[in-house]
Amino acid sequence: MRPPSAGSSGKVGSPEVPETQMKHSDINRISLADTAADSVLSRAAADAALESHLLALQERHEDLHRMGAAPKDLAEVRLQIARTLVGLGRGGEAWPLAREALDVFIAAQNFESAADTCDVLFQSDQPHSLSALGQGIWLAVTYPIDPELSVELLSHVVDETPDDADGAAVAATTALFLADMRASGRQRENLMFFASQMLANVARRHSGAESQAAFDLWMERLELREPEKFLVRLRNVVDVLVQDDWWFNRDALQAKLPIN
Predict the structure, then answer these.
(1) What is the mean pLDDT of residues 63-73?
(2) Residues 71-118: tens digit of each pLDDT
(3) Could you write out the DSSP letters of every residue in 156-197?
(4) pLDDT tens digits, residue range 124-136?
């Protein structure tokens, strides 16, 4: 670094800006600009890939329709088209396709695809998306579908629920319960870890439970250790989400369950 310059009076003048500092500053600006540009380009590339995938799916749907394919096969493609449209931020276009597919899956008793469709309907961010979430959760708990999908649906409740509401605690506890009961192997390890972290975060934001002792007291106070209690409360959460907007007959489906 050069020494500060001196004027005729002998007083020290303003120091010169070091060349190294100027270069470092320039590099930072260039780096930030490059990062922003990369982000835009990355998003543009992702959207282009989704658009290409969407076109291929639409052509596939047209081919199946022309061939007189079975409703379930058409519904599967419609679900994929709807999911892609959601990824492109076109939820309004995705909704009718997914909604139609849901009816086909329910009629075919393909409950895992039906729950998956409810997830897409929720993510389409339309006026009845919360109803779709509630019905997807009902399917995910009632039927032994992929526990990863069940946990994902329940995690949406955590995200949508105010910090001081009990609904998030019930949803997170149910997610941990389903991961424990229905998953196995590496999937069980991953889901148990994710659901445990989600439940701990809910306890922290709900009641400030930071220690293990505080967490245990919180679990006891909210009666989250007994499935026969928290699953009943989950039913109330589902009813709040769905209101009276059910798209299938729950009683008829329950009557066909093996336990009945």
Answers:
(1) 96
(2) 999 999 999 999 999 999 999 999 999 999 999 999 999 999 999 999
(3) HHHHHS-TT-SHHHHHHHHHHHHHHHH--HHHHHHHHHHHHH
(4) 999 999 999 999 9
CA distances, 133 to each of 6, 36, 88, 185 (Å): 73, 35, 20, 28
What is the spatial distance between Cα 47 and Cα 37, in angstroms, rounded to a whole number? 15
| Chain-centroid distance, C-alpha 120 | 10
CB < 8 Å & 24+ apart, contacts of 159-166: 160/130, 160/133, 163/205, 163/206, 164/206, 165/206, 166/206, 166/222, 166/233
Structure tokens at 217: 């007291």
If you ran DSSP here, which 8-state letter would residue 12 be given? B
For the whole model, what pTM was predicted? 0.82
Instruction: Tell me the CB-side half-sphere exposure of residue 107, using CA atoms within 13 A.
Output: 10
Nearest-angstrom CA–CA distance, 58 and 90? 15
Hey, what are 172's tokens?
Answer: 């997170």
Q: List the structure tokens of 90.
A: 């076109």
Q: What sign for the dihedral angle of Cα 209, 210, 214, 219?
A: positive
DSSP count for the chain of H helices, then E strands = 11, 0
Q: What is the pLDDT of residue 41?
A: 72
Measured in whole angstroms, the distance separating CA 177 from the mean position of its chain's CA atoms is: 19
Q: What is the rounded average pLDDT for all residues in the chain?
A: 88
The percentage of residues in the chain with a pLDDT greater than 70, rounded to a whole number, is 84
Token pair for 93: 């276009």
Number of C-beta neighbours around residue 152 at 10 A? 18
The angle at the Cα of 57, spanning 51 to 59, to the nearest 5 degrees, equals 105
The pair of three-digit structure tokens given for residue 39, joined into one six-digit string: 């982000």
